[in-house]
Amino acid sequence: MLSPLTMAVYRPAGRLGLYVRAFTVIAATQSAGVSVLDFGRGDVLVPVCFGDPVLIEDWGDAEARPAAVVGPRRHAVWVRSEGTVDQVNISFFPGAAGVFVGLAMPELVDKMAAPEDVWPRDFLDAVAELEPLPTQQRISGLASLLLGRLEPRRDPGPQVREAVRLIRASRGRVTVRGLAGQVNLSVSQLERSFTRHVGLGPKLLARQTRLSALAAEAMTCASPCWAWLAAKYGYADQAHLARDFRELTGLPPSGLAAERWPARHGCRAGLGVTWCHADLTSRTGSHEVFQPIKL
Question: What's the mean pLDDT in 257-273?
Fold first, then answer.
């Protein structure tokens, strides 16, 4: 059985690649109920939906309108679509979205800003005009629009960007003290900078990054060995992993495995597909693409 959902990840190069993690194109070959488990990781998301509405279940089925700005999440959330899926998700690296949207990240944590409260009318009109275009032209159009909104004065600075990079490169296996030392900041300076620019503290971001990387690897295994994964990713023991998993996702590790869809995905009961938005990988049963674009 193949998933009706297809997903392709386009990673921008050049200047935009410093701020945008990926453009993720999600589409369904047929109308189907689709549920996605988004691990968060401090990313700010801008879903550009050309199909039916996308709902964030854990936020009271709040509708993610086209070009809304979804803030950093402290906890994984389920995102659902029950109709035609046709969207491009813009994912900003932690701390990077403020360069484009000019919003205070602490005020956006676990919240969503309406598109008209963030973008000017001409930006939203230009986004809407991308609907009939093929995928590559949609992405190129979005990239151009974003570059036109880039405000260097709001850059979080090299120390925050390097700290985020180190968390990502280590898959979350860092301490806050060690991280602060590597970027020549005190612990309190690092934490204040993260609160201001990322919205989440460095410890929480590292926990999310480690767990999402572990979950991505677990999703590739028919029968994950949780004790082995716990050791590989630096957890004290399997019980420590289970506590982190439940705190950050609401699921025990075994729950994620038990609800798997046969093609390497978790499966929410009654829904066709789930996707684990995990570090470095994004998969569906029928499509997997990592294609850089030059801008």
Answer: 37
